[in-house]
Amino acid sequence: MTKPKKKPPRQSYNCLKCPGYCCTYPRICVTQEDIALLAEHHGLTHKQAAKKFTKDGHEPGEIILRRQEDEHFGTACMFLDQESRGCTIYEGRPTICREFPGVRRCGYYDFLFFERRTLEDADHISVTNNDWM
Ligand code: SF4
Ligand code: SF4
Question: Is residue 77 within 6 Å of ligand 2 at its C-beta?
Answer without folding.
Answer: yes
